[in-house]
Amino acid sequence: MVLVKQRTLSFGERYYFKTIVVGLIYTFKNLFRKKVTRSYPEERLDPSPSFGGVPVLVANEDGHPRCVACGLCEFVCPPRAIEITGTETERAIERVPKTFTIDYLRCIECSYCEEVCPEEAIVMSQQYELVGSSRGSLKLGLDELLTPASELSTRLEYIRKTYHRFQVAPATEANASCVPGVGGTGSGVAGTAVSSAKRRYEDNY
Amino acid sequence: MTTQATLSEAADRDLHTELMTLNMGPQHPSTHGVLQIQLTLDGETVVDAEPVLGYLHRGKEKHAEHMPYLQWLPMMDRLDYLAPLQSEIAYSLAVEKLCGIEVPAKAQAIRVVLAECMRLTSHLVWFACSALEIGAVTPFFLAFREREDLFDLLDELTGLRTNQEFIRFGGVKGEIPADLARRLKAWADRFGPCVDEYELLLSGNRIWYDRARGIAVLTTEQAIQLGLTGPNLRASGHPMDLRKDEPYSGYEQYDFDVAVGTVGDVYDRYLVRLEEMRQAARIISQALEGMPEGEHMARDYRYVLPPKDRVYSSMEELIYQFKVVTDMRPPKGEVYQAIEATKGELGIYLVSEGGTSPYRAHIRAPSFVNMMAIKPLCVGRPIADVVAVIGSIDFVMGECDR
């Protein structure tokens, strides 16, 4: 416990001499300090990889979404900004979204969707400016949301580092095949991946 | 009684004094958001002050009843929006108590760092605004300069400047990278002299001093009777601090002092908060230095999301992932968990009936309780002191109305 001490004013303080002198000295010193403000529209903000802007969908090299329309992000979204309807497909992943709508006006950028997604299909972008001329223009559909994985590489790297908790290296060769987009289908069928995952599983329990 | 007394005094002096009702707020710039105070004035003297609440009521407690536990976590950020992570920590601790999750030591240390950073950002805003309201403009820029530096660091860690959503049940979302920890520690070490700078410029400034010293004195008994907690209670001379009295998140390991006032006036509340800022910087420094090794999330996959690399590769973890998100059911029971938030004792009370959302949730908001001191402090004082009182009590309407 520490008792705070109330001070009494000195002579100089009572008649403002000291206050004025100290204030002027302080102001003068600050003239030569580094500027702390930024002239925003001219000087852009350079967001760090951890920066979570509004979410976008990740597209594979072939342009298809990684999303399998499992609906987990739709369920977890606290402000209910996401709406998905799924459909079946001939491709290996069997299920794709027919429509995928994110209402950016509702989004609170909590990154829960990114955290729960089992396919690394929805990630937070680096976009921090949201401007639209109408409410409808900020409700984006599948086509507008799809972003090539190459454009999102910094964020993908960041989430692998953050959410892959038991891994020493971010993407070792052994489990690269089970990380979607890195070398596999995301379904984890490659023999090496399963065996190495099993080994790590046993190590950890 | 006071009304009667003032009226009879006026009658004695044979002055034609009429009481006037003045609505201060909700758009008044010094009412910290949307507080309305109905003042009854006799000339310039306040005869009655009645806070009117509810302009920012969003029904958070009702929300909890139909939201899964995880989804209510971002709601906590919107309580005290000057210290969002504090409320998140309180709620997470409550759920962890309910479920019996053991939080790893590293996560606890990170939580302590974040909680103290929040104490700093919140107190810096208080310092900036309460000084500005009494007429000192410079402190605003000084405090926001430091706050901006801290926000840049927190932004790099959590990804967002405010409403961070960084705490999870069973731990925290990520760990503090070594490079960032070094910079954060350097910032915390640099912060002590900044507080000295504030003191140099403000504590001895006579204009400020005359408006703060001996104004709105709250005795210890009065403060306890009103149920005040936090810096306001400590400034009145009662050393209650939940970090010392009921340590959570491993606060017992850190060496810090509880600042206590002697008089209980506006000036004491100011000094106590400044001292708290110094202590918070000390705690951050200690916690970062002695950061334990290990994991930052518990491994109880009934309530905690499994690691993502496993989710991609293992069926079992994938099932857990879906299960935790859609069907997390804590056991039946009731818990109350209180933490020492920036404004005082922030308590979360949860009643679980074994479902996916709480049967009832209650938030003991320190701002709400502290606001009750407005009336006893303002009555009998000139109207100009109302602003000083509001500034010194330091409440946030988001938490108050919730």
Structure description:
The complex is a heterodimer of chains A (205) and B (402). Chain A is of the alpha+beta class and 205 residues long. Helix content of chain A is 30%, strand content 15%. Chain A is built from 8 helices and 7 strands. Chain A has a 3-stranded mixed β-sheet. Chain A is elongated. Chain A folds into 2 domains: 55-163, Alpha-Beta Plaits, CATH 3.30.70; 167-205, no CATH class. Chain A has helices at 11-14, 17-31, 72-76, 112-116, 142-145, 153-163, 173-176, 191-204, and strands at residues 2-3, 55-59, 82-88, 95-103, 122-124, 139-140, 146-148. Chain B is mainly α and 402 residues long. Chain B has 2 domains: 2-52, no CATH class; 60-300 and 329-396, Cytochrome-c3 Hydrogenase, chain B (Orthogonal Bundle). In chain B, 52% of the residues lie in helices and 12% in strands. In chain B, the strands form 3 sheets. In chain B, strands 1-2-3 form a 3-stranded antiparallel β-sheet. Chain B has a 3-stranded antiparallel β-sheet with strand order 7-8-9. Chain B has a two-stranded antiparallel ribbon with strand order 4-5. Chain B is globular, with a radius of gyration of 23 Å. The relative contact order of chain B is 0.18. The mean pLDDT of chain B is 86. At the A-B interface, strand 1, helix 2, helix 3, helix 4 and helix 6 of A face helix 3, helix 6, helix 7, strand 6 and helix 12 of B. Strand 1 (2-3) of chain A pairs parallel with strand 6 of chain B.
Structural features:
heterodimer; A: 205 residues; alpha+beta; Alpha-Beta Plaits; 2 domains; three-stranded mixed sheet; three-stranded antiparallel sheet; 8 helices; disordered C terminus; B: 402 residues; Cytochrome-c3 Hydrogenase, chain B; 9 strands; 12% strand
